[in-house]
Amino acid sequence: MTRFHFISTLAGITLLEAARNRLFWLAATVVGVALGLAQFLNQVAITESLEIQVALLAALLRVAAVFIVATFIITSMVREANDKVTELMLSQPAPRSSYFLGKFSGYALVTVILAAAFTLPLAVFAPTTGLIAWSASLVCELLIVTSVSLFCVISLTQVLSAFAATAGFYFLSRSMAAMQVIAGASLTSEHTTADAAINWIVDAIALLLPSLDRMTRTDWLVNAGPAMGETLGLVAQSAIYVVLIACAALFDLHRKNY
């Protein structure tokens, strides 16, 4: 079995597992519920009903996509480890990097399908340019979540701890810009040494985290989409973080004894 065939087989098995676990049916249910809530708000809103509808729908779909991807990856990897499937795969005459790339490729295909499914309901309300940018940004965001989930589950090996670490990383990355603003604000005109130290720590943490607050923004679906340079910058940022986190996960996989 060639390395490419091993990777593609693992990716196909992962995609088949998602289908058998009714993951795509779950996504369809989430889309239906989100559409129902958005339609309800559209009926009760007095002004700017379309903007409220789009904002709610986009926010619900984004959070649901992140939750579904992280939960599926973590539970799938833990189940395979408990059933000794991981040991069986790693015993094959293929390097561990092939196993990791196969699993990551399968999960990446799942994220792309989910991103496409969660983008379709917004096509009715949003302009094309903003919708394309939102969809591409959602794919990038989910790929980051995929790599983080793999890293956490390989390192921590437990569902609860891996999910908590992934959720902490995601929400911290989402709220870091607001935390920088809060840390930089002061109730008095004087800035003490403690204030400066807190600002430095928050800025240092922000440098290590992806700027998820700049991605998958709702205003792209209401107003004009981002400029091409901003979109390419977000894609480049996502690619760098995905590669770095995937390398860290692969390093952790190599040092483990199975």
Classify the helix fraction into a percent range. over 70%
- Which percent range describes the beta-strand content? under 5%
User: Helix- and strand-based class?
Assistant: mainly alpha
Report the sheet with the most strands, covering strand number, pairing sense and barrel closure.
none
Query: Which parts are unreliable, with pLDDT below 50 for 5 consecutive residues or more?
Result: none
Helix segment tally: 10
Number of strands: 0
Distance between the termini: 21 Å
**What is the alpha-carbon Rg in Å?**
20 Å
- The residue-averaged pLDDT reads 84
Cα shape? globular
SSE sequence, one letter per element: HHHHHHHHHH
Describe the structure in your own words:
The protein has 258 residues and is an all-alpha fold. The protein contains ten helices and no strands. Helix 3 runs antiparallel to helix 5 (96-119) and helix 7 (159-184) packs across helix 8 (193-208). The longest helix has 34 residues, at 49-82. The protein is globular. The model has no long low-confidence stretch (mean pLDDT 84).
